[in-house]
Amino acid sequence: MSETNPAATAPVTADAAPHRYTAAMAAEIEARWQDFWDAEGTYAAPNPKGDLAGDPELVARPKKFIMDMFPYPSGAGLHVGHPLGYIATDVFARFQRMTGHNVLHTLGFDAFGLPAEQYAVQTGTHPRASTEANMKNMVGQLRRLGLGHDKRRSFATIDPEYYKWTQWIFLQIFNSWYDDEAKRARPISELVAQFDSGERAVPGGGTWSVLTEAERADLLGEYRLAYASDAPVNWCPGLGTVLANEEVTADGRSERGNFPVFKSKLRQWNMRITAYADRLLDDLDQLDWPEAIKLQQRNWIGRSEGARVHFPVDGERITVFTTRPDTLFGATYMVLAPEHPLVEKFTPAAWPEGTREAWTGGHATPTEAVAAYRAQAASKSDVERQAEAKDKTGVFIGAHATNPVNGERIPVFIADYVLMGYGTGAIMAVPAGDQRDFEFARAFELPVRCIVEPTDGRGTDTSTWDSAFASYDAKIMNSVSAGSSEGEGVALDGLGVVEAKERITEWLERTGAGEGTVNFRLRDWLFSRQRYWGEPFPIVYDEDGIAHPLPASMLPLELPEVEDYSPRTFDPDDADTRPETPLSRNEDWVHVTLDLGDGRGPRKYRRETNTMPNWAGSCWYELRYLDPHNSEQLVDPEIEQYWMGPREGLPHGGVDLYVGGAEHAVLHLLYARFWSKVLFDLGHVSSAEPFHKLFNQGMIQAYVYRDSRGIAVPAAEVEERDGAYFHQGEKVSRLLGKMGKSLKNAVTPDEICAEYGADTLRLYEMAMGPLDVSRPWDTRAVVGQFRLLQRLWRNVVDENTGELSVADVAEGDIDADTLRALHKAVDGVRQDLEGMRFNTAIAKVTELNNHLTKVFGGGAAGPSVEGGGGRRAGGPVPRSVAERLVLLVAPLAPHVAEELWRKLGHSSSVVHEDFPVADPAYVVDETVTCVVQIKGKVKARLEVSPSVSEEDLEKAALADEKVVAALGGAGIRKVIVRAPKLVNIVPA
After folding, report:
1. CA atoms of 908 and 901, how far apart (whole Å)
2. Number of other residues whose CB lies within 10 A of the CB of residue 871
3. What value, to the nearest 5°, has the Cα angle with vertex 383 and ends 380 and 387?
4. How many CB atoms lie within 10 A of CB 876?
5. Which residues pair with residue 978 across a beta bridge?
6. Each residue of 392-407: pLDDT tens digit?
7. Which residues pair with 322 in a beta bridge?
8. Are 867 and 16 in contact (CB under 8 A)?
9. Tens-digit pLDDT profile for residues 294-328
10. 281 lies in some domain
11. Does residue 685 contact residue 635 with C-beta atoms inside 8 Å?
12. SS3 at position 570
């Protein structure tokens, strides 16, 4: 650290109190110390080796890796709601440094994505130019807050040096398969060796050596963890791109532009995240995450035990998954999702004889009926299709399946309430036990067979029912088959659900009609976007359409320049169109001749023209923070082990603290966990989980004011009069909501810093309430924290001279009340900062500061916020008390703490000073107040020792004259003592 004293250059302003702590002084102090920290590398976290290796003494300390969720560099910049989590992690990181840890805390930018691309489409500005300008603006805003980030480790996902490794990880996933027996990913080369040696049979009975290259590629595609397939997607012709489910409104239209969205099959890249479903579930138990987030992930993964049942259809079969195989006798029809690949195979040219008119949808042939219904279903979102509407729609496809348990032929329908995204995309419909099946059966005049004894008095005659009956407690009925020459029968009548499920599953497996299995709601991750501003896939296709990975030596594959960033748009109502990606227009980039190093020499190839989704870069960024300049490895193993490796309390390793919004509960967090597990399996990292401890901060909200038209008006221009709100004389409504530019209620951190200083903003945001709770912003309340800093300043600095104003007093000469207030504050603030209870830590600092002001007169004659000056009347604060107060404040308000620390005569930065430790003798109260109640009403209060026994406390309470008077000679039936704070007397 430099011996330079930045405090020596502080300016003197002309004022009644020229050295009063003002916004102008705060701005000057803050800018000066920020420059000092940058110049000195104050927040540099040393690695055990590599180009960021540093002080061995620091490396030998326990480490803390603290992270914020990746910010996106929005063009609107920050409002005061954005820095809440950043300030919190900064306070926590500063506290950890002061308690002896080597702390890694830095911040980068998740800079690929749709907003920059849309801006480019509208303005012609290259996405990189607008994104870099936005990042520069945000970096300036964040710097002004005094955040202690190691700036050597910062990066953006759009840096080619970064996305080189995103592409490299994709290739590791592409070149891997999941071994169900070993329960881990393995290199695809090991699978090839198994096929080649005959250790693993080639499906269909073929021989690996005689398969063509295309056949081998297709076979390996069934195993690869990254694979291309024809997948049903949300296709929006009006935008010219595929949309994520989150980008589609409930009425089946695009959130952006309000265009129709259709279900369509397109060739897309996928990640086989489903292979890790069990591990993603099981490992949640050992993560220190909020239970609500764990529950969301468990529900999203959706593990359910049941059985797969095979229904024969004309020599083929339809397989369904059901959690209630015990209800198999109640299946009276089947339903396939409209997109199911077997629909075409089973749809005949003509209607079978006897087909009911209600089943045909009014169409002359099954082919026409299916095509029309598919078009209708494609125009609905998954949300619409799953809505609990009474009017169920569908159409008979002209085929019948055989119920394997009783040989009954049952019709096969398609209906939009069945999705390909769950189970097998097909269901056995049991209308007596499922409300949606019941409503469908009523609409299409299908049988409803009672197979569970009703316990609600409705009886077993289903013709009288107006709803389905589902129960896990009732007995099974009408579920016996006698068997035939083709197989043995099974009887379930009289059994409970659990026993019936076991018996029918055994029967299914014994007869080959099915098998017990576990199913997951989780689907493979659709990993393609028809966009420009994203990572290019490191994949090329040969003239036969076979995908080949680029060798690592060809990475990064950089984004080419294109003239038009927008996807081609089509007739919004034309569902049969196909997307044209921006990258496909750059012919020189798409069609190339390459030598892939596979021994075949130069060949012609076509590049993949989709790009990766915006989630890709954030799946692994924690690893880049560790070793950001490594051009040879993803991360040095020793460095990764140091910062993220497993250790006591962290069985899977990971970041020590990850702070961000709960809105990323499923997608980002689940994807990042998946990538970590693949990298762990392949031996690239020692941590099987990316984030050990997760904390979700709440939201800073703001009042939204709307006029009579419902249009938001500028919050800053609204006046309050007699409990009502007015804008330009018109009464407006007020409702608490989000803060944002569109709602005209955004307050920028720049505004607050200019009026009060960054330290005040930091204190206010941390003092507003518990960090995990949403809270309303109130600019008028910010001044309270500004006054705290002014009183703190006056307790250390003479406002008239600017000189230090503390007394060199021995600890033994400080009054006991002050020592008790000091050590209680030290003990409480230490515990609160460790527990991230920043609001209560500030309350304890305020209490101590107020005590010093009261005892030593720092505030009695001191200046107010508005101005004034004067000397304190009670004498100076003891130096040792002032120093410890400054250290308590340092994590929360670092600029003023640095300034006061230097004024107190220290040459080192307060950032690396030891956090104070309380003397236990002063933390324990000399006395506590004990409440004495009679019939639940307080009658007396006693000052007693904290260690008083229950017997002595009872005697003292009964002897108190107020208690004696209140009893009035009445007898006592019971005395309940909770030493040392409560005595409850129950009179006879």
Report:
1. 9
2. 15
3. 100
4. 19
5. 982
6. 899 999 999 999 999 9
7. 307
8. yes
9. 999 999 999 999 999 999 998 899 999 999 999 99
10. no
11. yes
12. coil
Quick one: 880 and 930 in the same domain? no
Say if residue 764 is in the same domain as residue 825: yes
Q: Judge if 818 and 958 occupy the same domain.
A: no
Tell me the three state secondary structure of residue 587.
helix
What is the per-residue pLDDT across 254-296, written as a single tens digit (0 to 9) for each?
Answer: 877 889 988 888 888 999 999 999 999 999 999 999 999 999 9
- The span from the CA of 802 to the CA of 903, in Å, is 10
Give a yes or no: residue 836 inside a domain: yes
CATH of the domain at 479: 3.90.740.10
According to DSSP, the residues that pair with 776 across neighbouring strands are 701
Position 65, amino acid = F
Choose the final residue of a domain: 688, 712, 737. 737
**449 and 316 in one domain?**
yes
984: tokens are: 């409850």
Closest-CA residue to 301 (of 617, 612, 667): 667
Work out whether strand 303-313 and strand 316-322 pair parallel, antiparallel, or are unpaired.
Answer: antiparallel
Q: From residue 499, give the alpha-carbon distance in Å to each of 219, 441, 474.
A: 40, 28, 12
Q: Is residue 183 part of a domain?
A: no
What residues are paired with 303 via a beta bridge?
A: 520
In contact, 913 and 783? CB cutoff 8 Å: no
Provide the CA 609 distance to its chain's centre, in angstroms. Answer: 29
718-728 in b/e form (b: 16+ CB < 10 A) is beeeeeebebe
Could you tell me if residue 50 is left (phi over 0), alpha (psi between -120 and 50 degrees) or otherwise beta? left
Measured distance CA(890)–CA(901) in Å, rounded: 9
Rounded-to-integer distance, Cα 740 and Cα 719, Å: 20
pLDDT tens figures, 447-497: 999 999 999 999 999 999 999 998 888 999 999 987 654 568 899 999 999
| Residue 460 near residue 330, CB atoms below 8 Å | no
Q: What angle do CA 961, 964, 967 make, to 5 degrees?
A: 150
- Distance (Å, whole) CA 909 – CA 894: 10
Beta-carbon contacts of residue 469 (< 8 Å; ≥ 6 apart): 432, 433, 450, 452, 454, 456, 458
Say if residue 364 is in the same domain as residue 456.
yes
Q: Exposure pattern of 53-80 as b/e (b: 16+ CB <10 Å)?
A: eeeeebbebebbbbbbbbbbbbeebbbb
Q: How far is CA 853 from CA 817, 860, 877, 889, in A?
A: 13, 7, 9, 16
Q: How many CB atoms lie within 10 A of CB 341?
A: 12
User: Last residue of a domain, which of 477, 493, 520?
Assistant: 520
Other C-beta atoms within 10 Å of 282: how many?
10
**Which residues partner with 399 through β-bridges?**
412
Are the CB atoms for 624 and 165 separated by under 8 Å? yes
With tokens 């591990």, the residue in question is 279
| Distance, CA of 32 to chain centre | 36
Give residue 959's domain range.
926-987
Q: Considering only CA atoms, give the Rg of the chain.
A: 35
Residues 116 and 127: beta-carbon distance below 8 Å: yes
Domain count, the chain: 4
Same domain, 896 and 866: yes
d(CA 128, CA 701): 31
Q: Are 321 and 328 in contact (CB under 8 A)?
A: no
Q: Which helix (H) or strand (E) holds 959?
A: helix 950-959
Contact 277/683 with Cβ under 8 angstroms?
no
- The model carries a pTM of 0.85
Nearest Cα to Cα of residue 140 among 28, 34, 25, 69: 34
957: in domain: yes
Length of the chain: 988
Q: Do 370 and 454 share a domain, yes or no? A: yes
Are 434 and 468 in contact by the 8 Å Cβ rule? The answer is yes
d(C-alpha 528, C-alpha 537), whole Å: 9
Q: Locate 583 and state its tokens.
A: 């990258």
Q: For 938, phi and psi rounded to 5 degrees?
A: -70, 125
